[in-house]
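Bumping with the actual sequence this time:
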Amino acid sequence: MISVNTNSSAMIALQYLNQTSAQLAQTENQVNTGLKVSSAKDDGATFAIAQGMRADVAAYSAVTDSLNRGVSTVDVALSAGQSISDLLIQMKQKALAATDASLDTASKTALNADFQAMLNQISTIVSNANFNGANLIDGATTTSLSALASTDGTSVITVTGVDFTASTLIGTADLTSGATTALHAVSTAIATVDNALATLSAGAKKFSIQATFVQQLSDALTTGIGNLVDADMAKESAMLTALQTKQQLGVQALSIANTAPEIALKLFG
């Protein structure tokens, strides 16, 4: 039937053209974003799963930051402790030299001046061993460092601080009046500091090991998110070309269908 009121061929051609245009818009969005699921509209279930995984990745990032701050804080304490250990070795040399009964008063006084200067240096090192407001070697009763170890905040890793203050390690040693006592105090202090450094080092390793593990979990989740929502760009490129061609053919088909009613004019010529 030839009708000027109803053009079935044009309507069918338009339906197919609209479908092609919708598919083309979707493919172009995937090419532009690199995602096959960029919003809940694309695939609500997959988008919800991906969002949950993204939340976990963000949480792991916070855990990693906390652990890295812990590592840095302990590293500062270790560096300060090593410097103190080196000073104690020099102080032991001075104290041992001062026990020599053949030394005159002037020599002992000179040795003691060096000894006291090193003692003061220990105090300076301790007071400056801060990172992010935390000092693990100043002997404060609340000195301890905790870092997040899980995304729910219920698990933490804690490192207990130590006391490297000069008054605790050496006391009020004086080489001019008590070189032997000072020598004993310094020897004890060296052992104390070395043992404490080993404890701090173990704490730093705990932070580092957990940070590596958390990063691995985060990477695995990120890969999983990509598997869920990332577009296959090679596939989408081929699809884009095909749909563009299909759209052009659809436009031509619609144009041909729209000329069909003109046949009616020839019936009245």
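The tokens above came from a reply further down the thread. The chain has a mean pLDDT of 85.
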